[in-house]
């Protein structure tokens, strides 16, 4: 058992022995609860293939970021095109007192 496993087990045992009914913010009980959230990280030690998967996902973040930039650029282009194409044509007057549309000539 590694130091990390022993630490996680120790934190869990302390919390279970203490088992507070009320956990106020910024207290020791809240800190122990947050440290207990680290328990699922043990799977990376127990299953070596998970480390490999995580490593490959982290390597792929650069490509994912570049694809996201490309998609955002395309969305900006088509959004600008849509605004220019449909500007003012889809607007509707919601004032019941206005009966006809009058265009102002400038």
From TrEMBL:
UniProt KW keywords: Membrane, Transmembrane, Transmembrane helix
Membrane topology annotation: Multi-pass membrane protein
Residue ranges occupied by any Ion transport domain in the UniProt entry: 8-92
Transmembrane segments: 64-87
Main localisation: membrane
A Pfam family reported for this protein in Swiss-Prot or TrEMBL: Ion_trans
Localisation per UniProt entry: Membrane
Domain of life where this protein originates: Eukaryota
Name of this chain's protein: Ion transport domain-containing protein
Origin organism lineage: Eukaryota, Metazoa, Chordata, Craniata, Vertebrata
């Amino acid at each position: 058992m590694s130091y990390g496993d022993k630490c996680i087990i120790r934190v869990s045992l302390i919390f279970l022995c203490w088992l507070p009914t009320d956990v106020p913010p910024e207290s020791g009980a809240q800190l122990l609860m947050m440290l207990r959230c680290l328990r699922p990280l043990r799977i990376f030690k127990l299953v070596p293939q998970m480390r490999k998967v995580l490593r490959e996902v982290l390597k792929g973040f650069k490509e994912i970021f570049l694809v996201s930039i490309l998609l955002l650029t395309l969305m900006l282009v088509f959004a600008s095109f849509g605004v220019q194409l449909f500007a003012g044509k889809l607007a509707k007057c919601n004032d019941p007192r206005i009966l006809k549309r009058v265009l102002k000539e400038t």
